[in-house]
């Protein structure tokens, strides 16, 4: 039977997160949004992930205003976001009332599909967000963080998929953030999950870093996948995704025809090509990010992490250490229970690898986040951590065995009281919850702009700053 394959376009979120460290502005998006809404995409992945942080920290933008703007221009296409389960869009675990409220406000402001994942594939960290998405009438798509290692067999993923279905997911995504899938593995994994859960829609997300993405997507579709993630070609390849037009062409005229028009997509391509040229000229897009590197299969570093890591090393004047750091990453990962490398574990493992290389002595200096992950503060790792290593890293820290969020008291009321004078919209409390210092800086800039105050001339002594 013919099956129309659903296409999720990633240009507005993951493509630029992977290639230009999430620096695409809303202004850059605006001229093409109306045209994108007419394409017939299944969904536009346009929010969540690192975009929230980047809006506040680097672009001086309100992420909620961005979401509402995209919704206004794309009323006919489902909007999709990436949500880190109990980590929300930040880098720690948040209380359940915060998770509930972020889901509620995301859907109220225009999100239709919430792709929810946990960096450790710990189902305990997903249930609150799944329940909230269902309660608010959203589509809860739960992602499996795909990785490789001794425990990560097809059977492991099938069992995890069953737990996801039991938790109330509306669909499942195989999220291959580090481009580790091979065509044969994509085929076997999709077949295994579809055999176990034949009625559960299954989507495939993979990156082009290793050069295998298009082949993986095609084999996954032939094996029974229902949808795929792609990026319009100027923002495809490298650490991004398979080109939208190429996959549409590959499936055109087959029983998997997407129904999308390559002629219509050409208009989208033309616009994004101008952005690509601009990003290359202003240095945001490093051509190295567009190269195929099969060593990704060894290092297991996701595209977004790679571009940000390169950017950070450049700023520190340590770009020559990149290869050493990448070689250290899988060793750190093995030591710490084989966590899949996706936010926040990718940053935690990556930063620790940097410390190990730069100091010249492994684990002589450890970040608090790495200690916390080894101690169970982020959930249960896929494989047990050696108790001796755990003791070396954590010292006398308490080792957490259950759901980390069970230890957290409700936070929202306290957070609202702390920023009462700065709040201009209900969602501001969520910005402050996730990025306190960054949010306060943004709130001050926003108020100054509204009052016509030049921040450079501001008398700081006369401003009230909540702690």
Q: What features would you describe in this structure?
A:
It is a single chain. This protein has helices at 14-20, 26-37, 51-57, 63-73, 96-108, 127-135, 154-166, 183-196, 213-223, 244-251, 262-281, 296-299, 303-315, 322-335, 345-359, 368-374, 387-394, 412-418, 428-434, 436-451, and strands spanning 6-9, 43-48, 78-83, 113-117, 139-145, 171-176, 202-206, 227-230. It is an alpha/beta fold. An eight-stranded parallel barrel has the order 1-2-3-4-5-6-7-8, surrounded by five helices. The longest helix has 20 residues, at 262-281. The radius of gyration is 22 Å and the shape is globular. The model is unreliable at 455-467 (pLDDT under 50).
Write a concise keyword list for the protein shown above:
about 475 residues, globular, 8 strands, alpha/beta
TL;DR?
With 467 residues, the chain is of the alpha/beta class. 46% of the residues lie in helices and 9% in strands.
Q: What structural class do helix, strand and pairing data support? A: alpha/beta
Distance between the termini: 61 Å
* DSSP strand tally: 8
Round the Cα radius of gyration to an integer and report it. 22 Å
Count, helices: 20
The mean pLDDT is: 93
β-strand amount: 5-15%
> What are the secondary-structure elements, in order, as H or E?
EHHEHHEHEHEHEHEHEHHHHHHHHHHH
Instruction: Output the strand order for the largest sheet.
Output: 1-2-3-4-5-6-7-8
- The dominant shape is globular
């Amino acid at each position: 039977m013919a099956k129309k394959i659903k296409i999720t376009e990633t240009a507005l979120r993951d493509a630029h997160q992977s290639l230009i460290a999430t620096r695409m502005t809303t202004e850059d998006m605006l001229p093409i949004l109306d045209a994108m809404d007419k394409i017939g995409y299944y969904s536009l992945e346009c929010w969540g992930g690192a975009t929230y942080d980047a809006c506040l920290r680097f672009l001086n933008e309100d992420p909620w205003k961005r979401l509402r703007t995209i919704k206004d221009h794309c009323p006919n296409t489902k909007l999709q976001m990436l949500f880190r389960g109990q980590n929300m869009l930040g880098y720690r675990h948040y209380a359940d009332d915060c998770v509930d409220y972020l889901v509620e406000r995301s859907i109220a402001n225009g999100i239709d599909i919430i792709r929810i994942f946990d960096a450790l594939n710990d189902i305990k960290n997903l249930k609150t967000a799944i329940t909230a998405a269902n309660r608010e009438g959203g589509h809860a798509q739960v992602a499996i963080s795909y990785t490789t290692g001794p425990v990560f067999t097809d059977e492991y993923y099938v069992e995890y998929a069953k737990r996801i279905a039991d938790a109330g997911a509306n669909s499942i995504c195989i999220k291959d953030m580090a481009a580790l899938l091979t065509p044969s593995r994509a085929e076997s994994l999709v077949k295994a999950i579809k055999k176990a859960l034949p009625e559960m829609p299954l989507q495939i997300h993979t990156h082009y870093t290793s050069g295998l993405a298009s082949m993986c997507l095609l084999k996954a579709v032939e094996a029974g996948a229902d949808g795929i993630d792609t990026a319009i070609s100027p923002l495809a390849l490298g650490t991004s995704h398979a080109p939208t037009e190429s996959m549409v062409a590959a499936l055109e005229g087959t029983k998997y025809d997407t129904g999308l028009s390559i002629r219509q997509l050409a208009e989208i391509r033309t616009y994004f090509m101008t952005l690509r040229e601009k990003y290359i000229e202003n240095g945001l897009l490093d051509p190295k990010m567009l190269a195929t590197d099969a060593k990704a299969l060894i290092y297991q570093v996701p595209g977004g992490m790679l571009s940000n890591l390169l950017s950070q090393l450049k700023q520190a004047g340590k770009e020559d250490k990149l290869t050493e750091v990448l070689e250290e990453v899988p060793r750190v990962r093995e030591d710490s229970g084989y966590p899949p490398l996706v936010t926040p574990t990718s940053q935690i493992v990556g930063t620790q690898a940097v410390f190990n290389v730069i100091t010249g002595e492994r684990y002589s200096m450890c970040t608090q986040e790495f200690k916390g992950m080894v101690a169970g503060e982020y959930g249960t790792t896929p494989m047990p951590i050696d108790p001796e290593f755990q003791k070396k890293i954590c010292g006398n820290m308490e080792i957490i065995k259950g759901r980390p969020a069970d230890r957290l008291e409700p936070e929202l009321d306290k957070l609202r009281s702390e920023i009462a004078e700065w709040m201009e919209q209900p969602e501001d409390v969520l910005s402050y919850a996730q990025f306190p210092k960054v949010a306060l800086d943004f709130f001050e800039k926003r108020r100054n702009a509204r009052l016509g105050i030049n921040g450079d001339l501001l008398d700081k002594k006369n401003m009230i700053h909540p702690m």
